[in-house]
Design goal:
single chain; about 475 residues; Aspartate Aminotransferase, domain 1; Aspartate Aminotransferase, domain 2; 2 domains; 7-stranded mixed beta sheet; 17 strands; about 35% helix; binds pyridoxal-5'-phosphate
């Protein structure tokens, strides 16, 4: 049989001649794939990606928040190359690859010591599914039938059915909520549109009265409370104060409810602390981590639990004390070796302390966007910056959706060499941690130019 030489297959497929009509793009209207065909990206280096024609773009959002050390980092790439020479995959039951074992020790060094058991999986949604399953089974093993969850308006925990059942972003979730079991949703800690009508100086975490009410009524039925600590990411980077997070923990403690911190997006330094829960000095019963874990190289996630949770699962074959869960690629050696390299870089780069300077600069530079009347709110924490656009700054009236201003900003940004992707009416930045102060200034200067052009063109439609 003729074997293909390396590169033959790729050469037989000339990407510049290919259409997109075989693809179903995620989170994308079909019509837009025709009108705004996707860029074909060929290379990455540091904070930049390069398309097939050699044009460069700053990856302002770390490719959906995963690329924490930039693209093609020599240490992660090197670790993967070495691993490829040894073992691409082995199942994780009755055996484990060396990188997967090493990773558990590197993670244990970083995690709060109470979070002592580590379960591997493949992506953020799955890490959440596992957390929900663990919580349900934990109660069953203790002889109580708790089958409900409490979470928050504006919450996002992934796109699988279980994860969606505890998410509440209407355009993603409503249709599906109507079709399966409903859980409970407390108010979103959305400071810009505070559900308790407070402002930052008067905030007493009153928004969480709604959580307290739910638990008062249903605590006997509730298996766990799941939340995104400090920032509701997909809802539009809704950053909330540590006192609100503290109150979530204290209400859950009062009613003896398991806490699941979904740190899929915020873990590993993004909010300026290693884990977002550190902002409140709290340790959840269960924590989900993914995104930056492999530095954005390969899909991998972990669900970590306190020993007190794991204790319920200590059993032998005569018991039902087993978590019957596992994915074919659980503990994949390539992903594990990328993760080992990424966690080593966290130490080497002294994350999160070393991010202080660049996060301060990002926050300062963002203030320049206040000159645009359509900017309603500017918020930042750690290495996240967000700008919420409104029709009317005084009334906070939302932008008319049909004008698609955030979408137009993202399209125009490509002309300026920026990869942006808005969340609703929010333009946000989550660049790789390796971005320099000068690069931040440049990224925001270019975005400022984009705003000027788009807003100038659209202003007449707005007024
Ligand atoms: C907080 C949070 N949880 C879970 C997920 C789902 O992760 P994944 O897309 O890897 O399934 C995301 C994705 O953005 C997220 O932000």
């Amino acid at each position: 049989m003729k074997t293909l030489a390396r590169g033959d297959l790729m050469n037989s497929v000339n990407s510049s001649a290919l259409s997109f009509d075989r693809l179903w793009m995620p989170f994308t209207y079909y019509r837009d794939t025709l009108d705004y065909p996707p860029l074909v990206i060929k290379q990455g280096s540091g904070i930049y990606i390069f398309d097939k024609d050699g044009r460069s773009y700053i990856d302002c959002i770390g490719s959906w928040w995963v690329s924490i050390f930039g693209h093609n980092h020599p240490q992660i790439t090197g670790a993967l190359r070495d691993q490829l020479d040894n073992l691409e995959h082995v199942m994780m039951a009755g055996m484990i690859s060396e990188p997967a074992l090493n990773l558990s020790h590197l993670l244990a060094e970083l995690l709060p010591k109470e979070l002592s058991r580590i379960f591997y999986s493949d992506n953020g949604s799955t890490a959440v599914e596992i957390a929900l399953k663990i919580a349900l089974q934990y109660h069953a093993l203790r002889g109580s039938n708790r089958s409900e969850f409490v979470s928050f308006d504006g919450g996002y925990h992934g796109d699988t059915l279980g994860a969606m059942s505890v998410g509440m972003i209407p355009q993603y979730h409503s249709l599906f909520h109507d079709r399966f079991k409903k859980h409970h949703f407390a108010h979103s800690p959305y400071c810009y549109r505070c559900p308790a009508n407070q402002n930052p100086s008067s905030c007493n975490a009153d928004c969480m009265d709604s959580l307290e009410k739910i638990l008062e009524l249903r605590h006997d039925h509730i298996a766990a409370c799941i939340f995104e600590p400090m920032v509701q990411g997909a809802a539009g980077m809704r950053i909330y104060p540590a006192k609100v997070l503290s109150r979530i923990f204290s209400i859950c403690k009062k009613y003896d409810i398991l806490t699941i911190a979904d740190e899929v997006a915020m873990g590993f330094g993004r909010t300026g602390t290693m884990f977002a829960c550190d902002n409140a000095g709290e340790v959840p019963d269960i924590m989900c981590l993914a995104k930056g874990l492999t530095g954005g190289y390969l899909p991998m996630a972990v669900t970590v639990v306190k020993e007190s949770v794991f204790d319920e699962f200590r059993g032998d074959y005569t018991t039902e004390r087993i978590l019957n869960h596992g994915h074919t690629f659980t503990g994949n050696p390539l992903a594990s070796s990328a993760a080992c390299a990424a966690l080593t870089l966290l130490k080497q780069y002294n994350i999160p302390s070393s991010l202080k300077k660049t996060s301060k600069i990002m926050a300062e530079e963002l203030e320049k966007f206040r000159e645009f009347e359509i900017v309603g709110d500017i918020r930042s924490i750690g290495m996240i910056g967000a700008i919420e656009l409104v029709k009317d700054r005084k009334t906070k009236e939302k932008l008319p959706a049909e004008l698609r201003i955030p979408f137009k900003i993202a399209q125009k940004a490509l002309d300026f060499g920026l990869l942006l992707r808005p969340l609703g009416n929010v333009i946000y930045f989550m660049p790789p941690y390796i971005i320099t102060a000068e690069q931040i200034k440049n990224m925001l200067f270019l975005t400022h130019c984009v705003f000027k052009e788009v807003i100038h063109d659209e202003l007449s439609d707005l007024r």
